Amino acid sequence: MKYLKAIILMISIFLILNIIITITSYYSLFKDNTINLLKLFSFIISFLTSSIYFGLNIKKKGLINGVKLSLIYILLFLILNIFLTGFNIKNLLYYLLILIINILGSIIGVNIKKTNK
Predict the structure, then answer these.
(1) How confident is the model at residue 117 (pLDDT cuts 50, 70, 90)?
(2) CA 10 to CA 105: how far, in whole Å?
(3) Which residues contact 24 (CB under 8 A, 6 or more apart)?
(4) Is the pTM of this model over 0.85?
(5) In degrees, to the nearest 5, what angle opens at C-alpha 47 toward C-alphas 92 and 13?
């Protein structure tokens, strides 16, 4: 259940941020390079907040649980990519980024919880 809540949090944050980015892109408020950076930041922010939330809800072993959460995300995105666009080597960079962000976020979440006790 903890995994499902983290996944739902990530998807909702990701969708909200991408709607905002799409609106700003539609009205041409930023250049294309800035829009691409905003998309990358929304990707990082959504995964980081969901993994910190997940880390706050577990007791210990943030590294192992972060790897588990990131593997769930990677499998989810891998299945979506294979069915929608086909496999691309470029996506391996995103999968590595997901792995690193989720591990760091869950470790941060566990440590925040320990310091607040």
Answers:
(1) low
(2) 12
(3) 30, 35, 38
(4) no
(5) 125
